[in-house]
Amino acid sequence: MDTTKIPPNPNKKRKTNQNPETTFLINLQSCTKSKDLQTAISLFESALSQNLRLSLHHFNALLYLCSNFATDPSAKDSAIDYGFRVFNHMLSNKAVPNEASVTSIVRLASAKKDGDYAFELIKKMNKDYNLVPRLRTYDPALLCFCENLEAEKAYEVEEHMGSMGVRLEEQEIAALLTVSSETGRVERVYEYLQKLRNSVRCVSEGTAKAIEDWFRREKATEVKGVSFDEGLVKEAVLKNGGGWHGLGWIGDGKWVSKRGSLDENGKCCCCGHQLVNVDIDDAETEKFAESIAGLSMEREVKANFSEFQDWLEQHADYEAIVDGANIGLYQQNFAEGGFSIPQLDAVVKELYTRNGNKWPLIILHNKRLRSLLENPSHRKLVQEWMDEGVLYMTPHGSNDDWYADSILSSVAEILVLFDTFLLLNQCDYFMVSTSKLLMNTYSVLYEYWLYAAVKLRCLLATNDEMRDHIFELLGTNFFLKWKERHQVRYTFVKGNLKLQLPPPYSLVMQESEKGSWHVPISINNDESSQTWLCITRSTVDESCDKAKALENTETSENGHGLCWNDETLNSCNP
Question: Of 62, 138, 192, 543, which sits most exposed with the smallest number of CB within 10 A?
């Protein structure tokens, strides 16, 4: 047996003795992971007896653990008591709380139904500590007031949230709708229905029940809707982008609430109402167009884009815009590939036919157009488009030329970046910097056709997903709504064109011109079997029943029907 001693490694770090404060923090973190409140309390008592210097990390770990037990019936009282004791000790030690500290104590205050104290803490954290509350900070106080049916106090919290730039989400809106419903605040209920429509695509089952509860109340039945001029309501719907008017309650009589589905075209099986594809409203459209124009002015020769804007003002009757480069270069990444004029022609002809023999606007870059005209086999078709006035050529010095120059410039910059980051051994930073550089280079390419589609409020034929700076302009939800309503995607299967047009209706809450509501419920992810909440006045529902009876008669005669069959009608009973 070898008894030779192994020499100690001089580079190995010796384990240093931990001070009591560090040991206390490690043990606290262990209690947090194992959710051991009693041991954490014992540790806190021991720390006090030893006069340990407690830091913000110690206090936050204890407060967090106490707040997690505030909803546990068996440990609620002790969690609240010790939580406040920790917080008071924290303040007496002159430790300045952060957002996490305040959020934990707000949860504890709300758990003992003291919403007033919770809300005062939130206001104090901003005023005294210059801390910005988050949604999780407000939630306990807001939900506490809602559960206690203290509607005015709940509205005050909501107002404070708005002043701090904190947006309501579905849970908060549903709670405010419920407290408004239970306290009979009719106009507030309408306001929160609109906020739900604007914030949530499909509501949860709990929110759906809260909506149903309101419309089944006597107070809802007593609501006498304002008699608006039919033209005024239609004008409001058009201005808002379709799917809602926002003018207030319409009609009178008892509300009828049913659950059902839509047919493939968006017609409700319960009431026969046709849902629509919802667009962004007038103000949002103008803001969108101005943002794109502003970016384009920064990216290239200002006169070029101004000239395009002036031209578009004089030619504003197009119903579709075609991204010529995107379609012509689709699936052309092979040896013999190039710009495919047959692909572009197929898309143009299909849109021409679908729009009642009305030409779309084709946008092509200057350099691309010149090369097409120089090709004898393409010249005749391109000349036809030019004669029809449906081809816009971006001027020399913009887009394609800018793009080519920028790519060369970007490649040079990337090589410099690579050398720099290679020396620093920071490849991750190199990848981030490179992607940002190339994204900036690419972003200007679609500003002409995107601006035209937004400004003219028409369809846009492109497979480009436009994933870069546009999201930063107006927000992801805003841009996704616009794309869903306007983008026409395409594919070629064995040379045959297939267009994917925008859906006939949007999967969002909708308010009809007659005052009825349709609410999608997120029960499953299958749109074809999507459950909808249909809410109409009884007078409207009776007229729908007559229409359905007539439809059923016709169905039995001709043997076909999409939605109003016996099985579907049974599922729509209140």
Answer: 543
Per-residue burial over 521-544, b if 16 or more Cβ lie within 10 Å, else e, is bbeeeeeeebbbbbbbbeebbeeb
Rg for the chain, CA atoms, rounded: 32
> Where exactly are the structural domains of the chain?
20-245, 282-402+445-500
| Architecture of the 20-245 domain | Alpha Horseshoe (1.25)
Dist. CA 526–CA 482, nearest whole Å: 22
Report whether 154 contacts 184 (CB < 8 A): no
Q: Quick one: tokens of 248? A: 């207030």
Q: What CATH architecture applies to the domain 282-402+445-500? A: 3-Layer(aba) Sandwich (3.40)
pLDDT band for position 435 (50/70/90)? very low
Burial of residue 338 (CB within 10 Å: 0-12, 13-18, 19+) is: exposed
Tokens of residue 245, six digits: 């008017």
3-state secondary structure of 491: strand
Q: Beginning with the edge strand found earlier in the chain, give each strand of the sheet holding 531-537 in spatial order.
A: 255-260, 531-537, 517-521, 510-511
* pLDDT tens-digit readout, 508-559: 999 999 999 999 998 766 656 789 999 999 876 555 555 555 555 444 344 4
